[in-house]
Amino acid sequence: MANPKVHNHQYDVVIVGAGGAGMRAAIEAGPHASTAVISKLFPTRSHTGAAQGGMAAALANVEEDNWEWHTFDTVKGGDYLVDQDAAEILAKESVQAVIDLENMGLPFNRTPDGKIDQRRFGGHTRDHGKAPVRRSCYAADRTGHMILQTLYQNCVKLGIEFYNEFYVLDLIMNKVDGVERPAAVVAYDLATGDIHVFQGKSIVFATGGFGKIFKTTSNAHTLTGDGVGIIWRKGLPLEDMEFYQFHPTGLAGLGILLSEAARGEGGILRNASGERFMERYAPTIKDLAPRDMVARAMANEVREGRGAGPNKDYVLLDLTHLPPEVIDAKLPDITEFARTYLGVEPYTEPVPVFPTAHYAMGGIPTNVQAEVLRDNDTVVPGLYAAGECACVSVHGANRLGTNSLLDINVFGKRAGNAAVAYAKTADFVEVPKSAIDEVLRLLQHVRDSKGTEKVAVLRKELQDTMDLNAQVYRTEDSLNEALDKIAELRKRYEHISIQDQGQRFNTDLLEAVELGFLFDLAEVLAFTARERRESRGGHFREDFETRDDEKFMVHSMAYKDGDKIKLGWKPVTITNYPPMERKY
Amino acid sequence: MSAVAEVPVVEIAEIPSFKVTLMVRRYNPEVDPEPKWQDFDLTMYGTDRVLDALHKIKWEIDGSLSFRRSCAHGVCGSDAMRINGRNRLACKTLLKDLDLSQPIYVEPIKGLEVEKDLIVDMNPFYQAYRDVKPFLIASDSPERERIQSAADRERFEDTTKCILCAACTTSCPVFWTDGQYFGPAAIVNAHRFIFDSRDEGAEVRLDILNDKEGVWRCRTTFNCTEACPRGIQVTKAIAEVKNAVLRGRA
């Protein structure tokens, strides 16, 4: 196989990923520095567009609210693993973040007096948990779609340069005066099979999540965690990887997301006998408890035999008491999902739902300037991360609904600004001659491998074991089983073969490369989940059912150490809110 | 009534499976002199979609089959294709809703150059979109949100739903002729701003669409409206833009 063509580019700021965080960063960077955005998809295909319910901000447009209440809810919702200085920034800057979007053109739903309308969402409360508060700014049930479109529209306006359907597969680091800095990223052009090296003074990772390690997931096929995996392979740490959110209301059997907005607008979860079971688990805010609690409650109803359906393996989301005009105006898309995919009419029938893998709380550790950390506090100069791939940490052990669309806007903007400021003062880092070797090796390995194993089979076995062993309920045994299975799959991965040997749009090749990243991230998740012998937020251990602040009020920091994983811990930043029991 | 004692009903979950033949239009310019049809016999289940069938082919039979997809539930707009002669999203088309006694024909959307199998060159489509200035043009710089009445907001609700999948534009016979026409999707995205009370750029966009390749090439065949997977009243939106060109935005 001949070596592919290699192209070289130079930009002050190189942004990897064109979802909400990447494009929000580009909007800050573009006007002040030469900027390139590299994305494996055309920008509006990014998964930000699938977000539904809204974006939290204490605008107080419809009832009393303030950023301090929002900070508290975020900290409590995250089961006190949130870095409180970061949560404060998130909540304080939320108002401007929403105003920015409106000013850019985002068509929010409006109140009768023409302001941005707001609605309830899980875990967002008035005055430290007294009652649900209307804090979510929304555009029907397609807020993420509107954010993604608005950000892309503004990138078009600013003439931002995009490289679409370019898969970034490696980050090149190099030492300058003894300090390791990012020099470039290496990308594979899907259309041609050519290799592109993007040298950047600042490099921003905004590559999204990795839900495809699970079988049942709300995530897109493309969410294979390449960005997080690249950082991992560089020997940089990943933080809090054991904390993965399972969204309560995925369409049963399919995992397609039905927004929490359904419950925010009054939807009720019921078991087979019609009981509103959340009254037993969270007497005060019931169906609007944080996602981890609702997901566990649902799984528990099913485990104890109170599930609905022929296999008793799901519960029901009941919207039948809502007026059809409210459903049409506020929840049009998700009710259509129920009609299209399950043939259920939400006006008159309850919708079968079950938890679906949704969001990674953990990821690439950063400080509040979105600078990537190489240990508990040392910055990698010039390297930034924002959005789901990053861990600031504003979500702690469990993210509140509507805080992710907020996160990408607040920290995407911060990453863009910080990247420009750095690029103004820094020189390019030399790209070593060997820069593309690793990517060539990766591709060549897959192309040349002539074994009998199939990528799709290995991926399915990985997803099955993760659903079975590392989902809502976990134990030492189940996690060991997952780790053993991953080790076995990695061995078999050495013997894969692919059928497509061409250069054009070779997605066969890319799926094989993506699977390598999925293995890495699944392994880190299962490993850190095994080592955290307590239950907190989205991480629930049946063999350690309670939160253990004495031992585990710390972030996990996992490092790649050859073929092994080295684990460290990092203190949580606490400012105003000492840990309390989390009750709703 | 029979005298036989009532037998307790044991509910057995049955996942109905069915056989289906997919005829897929294949073309790899690297090796094929011209496009050809290839048939695949598959066993599929319950709520499987056309996308699931394509994945089954790619993952189990022929890894070289190429198509775009991402979200798999009709919101990202990656997988518009021609299914039994109609433009649809593969991830939103349930197999059981098609006539399974006949083969299902799957081919790339028309009017854009085929790059490989079901993948077409979308760049001309995106260029037409960018050409209508699809962004808010406003001279004010408010400190808070702009005030917009719920009615003014509702005025352009329908056209905010567009996911740029190109199902409408590539269903349009006028677009097929020479690919010069802006096409329904670009006009839909112009509409979204022309009728936004906060926007000041309507005149510019209406000028652009008054061009010979603009709205007047529309022959109101309604193909676009039928093709839109988001249910946008595309032909109506085009008519409203035509009206606005003549009489100003109402």
Give the terminus-to-terminus CA distance of chain A: 61 Å
Question: What is the succession of H and E elements of chain B?
Answer: EEHEEEEEHHHHHHH
Shape of chain A: globular
Overall mean pLDDT score of chain A?
96
Count of strand segments of chain B:
7
How many helical elements of chain A? 17
Pair of chains with the largest interface and how many residues each contributes: A-B, 63 and 63 residues
What gyration radius of chain A follows from the Cα positions, in whole Å? 23 Å
The proportion of strand residues of chain B reads 5-15%
Helix share bin of chain A: 25-40%
Q: Separation of termini of chain B?
A: 70 Å
Spatial arrangement of strands, main beta sheet of chain B: 2-1-5-3-4
Structural class of chain A: alpha/beta
How much of the residues of chain A is beta strand, in percent?
Answer: 15-25%
Radius of gyration of chain B: 23 Å
Q: Could you describe the largest sheet of chain B, including whether it forms a barrel?
A: 5 strands, mixed
Mean pLDDT of chain B: 93
Q: Which range best describes the helical content of chain B: under 10%, 10-25%, 25-40%, 40-55%, 55-70% or over 70%?
A: 25-40%
